[in-house]
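Notes to self, Sulfate transporter/antisigma-factor antagonist STAS:
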Amino acid sequence: MKPGSIKVAQHEGVFVIKMEGDVRLTLCLSFDSFIESMFGQSDFKSVVFDLTDAEAIDSTTLGLMAKISINGKAKQFEDPIVISRNPSITRLLVTMGFEDIFQIVRDADIALDGELPLEIEQEDADENAVRDKVLEAHRTLMNLNENNKITFKELVQSLEEQQ
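result:
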């Protein structure tokens, strides 16, 4: 499996977030920092997730994706669009309840040519910072639906005990 990467571009307030390969929690701190800066942009309008080249996405990353949708909705923006052609990833998104907070499509016209200009780099961070971000991401997923509460209950309890 190809190592995960997250690339971003922005045009007139629309942010395209492209995930490639096996996207894991190693990018969670830098991805969360990007999320905070994205919402701080005065021209922010919406987000498009391009998952067409993603092979796998872990639950921490999914929790951060959910955070984007929830924060956007709180600021009265439309639900983000997720482009997914991989049946396994689409099934995972549906299982997590993402149909309620994202528009999941197989194709979309994205007018970005060439390489996406910015790649989110992995930050060096201490174990506590990563654990806190993993905990936040899973709490977000648990708040989406009852199935997620059951699925992540033990993991969240274990992480809370380590704090």
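- The chain has a mean pLDDT of 91.
- The first strand starts at residue 5 and ends at 11.
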